[in-house]
Automatic annotation (TrEMBL):
InterPro entries: DHS-like_NAD/FAD-binding_dom, Myo_inos_IolD, THDP-binding, Thiamin_PyroP_enz_cen_dom, Thiamin_PyroP_enz_TPP-bd_dom, TPP-bd_CS, TPP_enz, TPP_enzyme_TPP-bd. Residues 442-594 form the Thiamine pyrophosphate enzyme TPP-binding domain. This is 3D-(3,5/4)-trihydroxycyclohexane-1,2-dione acylhydrolase (Decyclizing). Belongs to the TPP enzyme family. Gene3D superfamilies: 3.40.50.970, TPP-binding domain. Residues 55-150 form the Thiamine pyrophosphate enzyme N-terminal TPP-binding domain. The lineage of its organism: Bacteria, Pseudomonadati, Pseudomonadota, Betaproteobacteria, Burkholderiales. SUPFAM superfamilies: DHS-like NAD/FAD-binding domain, Thiamin diphosphate-binding fold (THDP-binding). Residues 240-371 form the Thiamine pyrophosphate enzyme central domain. The gene is iolD. The keyword Ion transport does not apply.
């Protein structure tokens, strides 16, 4: 017998307060409803959509479910078409980085290779502590049609799919196997991406049948609270201990990391440095925290660092590490300032406690303000402050010299290209340090840009040197342009990285988001070839001309022709002077630009730098390797233990 009940007031109220939608529709409506308080480089705050849009490449795993939902909401939540899954995910990561983690873009792919193509981007975001919402399609939860096209079959685990590969490279992973799970999983995903300590990529795997399942959703689910940056303060005991440690120092040095930018702590950092006379050096992620010409800004630190910053690192008695992961390039593989005491201010306890340093767990901006108040009346040794100011001024003059001198031979190197790009802004009546955002990731260029690029605004130096992902550059430039349309976005990239992933140059044309790509062609992986030979090895498998087997043909790639084929305006320039002229034209253009110049990998900027631990074979028939091994062992004795 079937029993029925009259609806009560409660059940009627519940029915009236719900809406019937598919999982795909509910997910899209929730994302479209999210709003965030966003602070820009100028310090002004505005209310903007938290999710700016969805990059989508459709296939059978997401087109009828999530794809149909996106089409219905395209006016509230824009869908952007890309040309590769890794490219669109890289662009989404760059968008979040350009917004200092305050906004995101989502990415969706079909099942199988579309999903696994995004794994590199997930790892990039994980390493760099950046938010990325991954929405890959998945196989049928019912399993009735198994194995479907592109499905991985595990002989041991029936529920396994390729999306499980996202587990180690995301902060949060969930597979939605029933509609109601989205009520918990989606807010949890947003919570992870907006938590300053846990921030990173999240993955919600969406089985293609579940995307189409309908459910009655509470209406208040689509009224999420406004997102704002959380700023946890320091613990009183830790703050007092940190203040006491700093007061005991005479020659302190601040190392500014990416956390300074993510917490918009640039004003607090400048005030702290000026109030207490403490010089500042910047990591790759932290470059741009202070204006390049601030008297106490020593510039880049570490393996790719300036002589001013690295000299201070060797002489300081205390390092205040603010918002940095203390990566090997920043610390010279932990040998650069191994004798100094270490105080780490970081919102993430894992980073704050590295290398047994004294930890101060707090938001970078709040922590600096609290610490400055704790240190009222204290200043570093005046001779130390004055000496660092002199070193900083000398380095500023040296950068001008390095980037404006004519090439010493027929082919220029990176410093001269950087100078031409910068001076082309002055030719157009612009201040490159305030107008241009440079984007890069891998090869020799990160070293040269870290030392030589000038940034006067936070975020105008955009470098992936956490994962140093070859192929990030062009897609990253697109993501930055989506985030900062008012800026001139200049991608400076080597031929090796360009060849790995360039398709989003066509996407920039498709979307009408102009970027300028300056491609330096040194005919191969010049950076690694240089490392290979300088550690005693033979030149092998890096330069294109040395990789032609019997019966093969010398590589002759016309990058300008390729750029034009993708829809960009493109030209191959013959000199630094011609590059400067073409940059002026490119700045005035409305379509994406590709400027190609031949360069040499044999010359680099010798000023500065620090030891970097790269293991050398203990046994080799090559005398050069044996000598490199002895130097390697000697350098290891200077590492912080």
């Amino acid at each position: 017998m079937i029993m029925t009940m009259e609806p009560t007031a409660m059940t009627m109220q519940t029915a009236q307060a719900s809406v019937r939608l598919t999982v795909g529709q509910a997910l899209v409506r929730y994302l479209a409803a999210l709003q965030a308080e966003v602070t820009g480089p100028d310090g002004e705050t505005e209310i903007l959509p938290y999710c700016a849009g969805v990059f989508a490449i459709f296939g059978h795993g997401n087109v009828t479910g999530l794809g149909a939902a996106l089409e219905a909401e395209k006016d509230r939540l824009p869908t952007l078409r890309a040309h590769s899954e890794q490219g669109m995910a890289n662009a989404a990561v760059a968008f979040a980085k350009a917004h200092f983690r305050q906004r995101i873009m989502a990415v969706t792919s079909s099942i199988g290779p579309g999903a696994t193509n995004m794994l590199t981007s997930a790892a990039l975001a994980h390493v760099a502590r950046l938010p990325l919402l991954l929405l890959p399609g998945d196989v049928f939860v019912s399993r009735l049609p198994d194995p479907v096209l592109q499905q991985l079959e595990s002989f041991e685990q029936g529920e396994l799919s390729v999306n499980d590969c996202f587990r180690p490279v995301t902060r949060y992973f969930d597979r939605i196997t029933a509609p109601e799970q989205l009520l918990v999983a989606l807010p949890r995903a947003i919570q992870v991406m907006t938590d300053p300590a846990q921030c990173g990529p999240v993955c919600l795997a969406l089985p293609q049948d579940v995307q189409t399942f309908a459910c009655d959703w509470p209406l208040d689910f689509f009224q999420p609270a406004r997102i704002r940056l959380r700023r946890p303060p320091a613990d009183a005991v830790e703050l007092a201990a940190a203040g006491a440690l700093l007061r005991s120092a005479k020659r302190p040095l601040i190392v500014a990391g990416g956390g300074v930018l993510y917490s918009q702590a640039w004003d607090a950092l400048r005030a702290f440095a000026q109030t207490h006379g403490v010089p500042v050096a910047e990591s790759q992620a932290g470059k741009g925290s202070l204006a390049w010409d601030l008297p106490l800004n020593l510039g880049a630190i570490g393996v790719t660092g300036s002589p001013a910053a690295n000299r201070a690192a060797g002489e300081c008695d205390l390092v205040l590490a603010v918002g940095t992961r203390l990566q090997d390039f920043t610390t010279g593989s932990h040998a650069l300032y191994a004798r100094a005491r270490l105080l780490s201010l970081n919102v993430q306890p894992l980073d704050a406690g590295k290398k047994r340093g004294q930890q101060l767990v707090a938001d970078a901006r709040t922590g600096l303000e609290q610490l400055s108040a704790e240190l009222a009346g204290w200043r570093a040794d005046p001779d130390w402050t004055a000496g660092c100011r002199e070193q900083a001024a000398a380095w500023v003059a040296r950068v001008t010299q390095l980037t404006t001198r004519p090439p010493e031979n027929a082919l220029p190197y990176e410093a001269e290209v950087i100078g031409a790009v910068r001076e082309s802004a002055a030719d157009a009546g612009l201040d490159s340090a305030r107008n241009d955002i440079v984007v890069c990731a891998a090869g020799t260029l990160p070293a040269e840009l870290h030392k030589l690029w000038r940034s006067a605004l936070p975020g105008n130096y955009h470098m992936d040197y956490a994962y140093s992902c070859m192929g990030y550059e062009v897609a990253g430039g697109l993501g930055v342009k989506l985030a900062r349309p008012e800026r001139e976005v200049i991608v400076i990239v080597g031929d090796g990285s360009y060849m790995m992933l360039n398709s989003e140059l066509a996407t920039s044309v498709l979307l009408g988001r102009k970027i300028i790509v300056v491609l330096l062609d040194n005919r191969g992986f010049g950076c690694i070839e240089r490392l290979q030979t300088r550690t005693g090895g033979a030149s092998f498998n890096n330069l294109l001309d040395a990789c032609v087997p019997e019966g093969g043909t010398r590589s002759a790639i016309d990058y300008a022709l390729h750029g034009r084929a993708l829809g960009a305006d493109a030209v191959h320039v013959r000199s630094v002077e011609e590059l400067r002229r073409e940059m002026r034209r490119a700045r005035a253009a409305t379509r994406s630009q590709l400027l190609v110049i031949d360069t040499t990998h044999q010359r680099t900027t010798d000023d500065g730098g620090a030891w970097w631990e790269v293991a050398v074979p203990q046994v080799s028939p090559r005398p050069g390797v044996a000598a490199a091994q002895r130097d390697y062992l000697e350098a290891k004795t200077r590492q912080r233990r």
